[in-house]
Amino acid sequence: MIVPTIVFHMILDKDIPDFDQRKEVDRVRVAMIEYAMDQMKKIYLPKKIRKQLKFDLTAQMNQTSMVDFAREIKYTIKQKELPDDQKEFRAEVYRYAFRQERDYLGKIAQQERKYRRGFLALYRQILMSEVVFLDDEND
């Protein structure tokens, strides 16, 4: 029992504490979303879509309060439904934003392999968000 304990301790990679992993993933999440926002500034977007996209991206960083959320819902309810061509444009914009997030995360994940598990979880969250958004657009 003593030999495997000593040998395994020397040959196996040290496990990163969950707190450190979560802290790093949260840092990368914020950087990833800021990167996506910067990329979205480089393309033309109607004011209404830009405002909605900014709110949705900020919500990914958990920087929206319940008051902000309620205000956005109230604003959204008052708006007329977008024509089909504008809905398609908005869906393409969101696909592009999600792609920017995934690309950024892919670059970072290759550089920092020790947080790979946390980055994969974040990557899955982005994919799920995209699926939920796109599914909602198709209804």
Quaternary organization: single chain
Can you tell me the overall shape? elongated
Mean pLDDT: 80
Structural class: mainly alpha
Unreliable stretches:
none
- Biggest sheet architecture: none
Number of helical segments?
6
CA-CA gap between termini: 60 Å
Give the amount of beta strand, in percent: under 5%
H/E element sequence? HHHHHH
Structure in words:
The chain contains 6 helices and no strands. With about 140 residues, the chain is an all-alpha fold. The mean pLDDT is about 80.
Helix and strand layout, with pairings?
Blueprint: H1 2-11, H2 18-41, H3 47-60, H4 66-78, H5 84-111, H6 116-138
Helix pairs in contact: 2-3, 2-5, 5-6
Provide a compact summary of the structure.
The chain has helices at 2-11, 18-41, 47-60, 66-78, 84-111, 116-138. The chain is mainly α.
How would you describe this structure in keywords?
139 residues; mainly alpha; 6 helices; 81% helix
